[in-house]
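Many introductory courses stop at the sequence. We go one step further.
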Amino acid sequence: MGLPEVIVYSKPDCCLCDQVKQQLKKLQEVHGFAWREVNILDDPADFNRFRYEIPVILIDGRKAFKYHLDEKRFVRLLESAGCKRRAET
């Protein structure tokens, strides 16, 4: 049992990506979740999948946001995913 997996697909020199990453850092301080960033330029499949949508935020493998992050909705989804994980164990 752990926290939901949060992944941000982004690329360098993307102002929307930078904004979302700053939001996640701020939210992480309060809510204690872990997240990781994937650079879409490192993998052609990721580039083809997400190039027109970055930043893309996945929670437990499901696309939750693209372009922008709604912080209140993110926290609700994070909590909901955590509840589902606890129920599965």
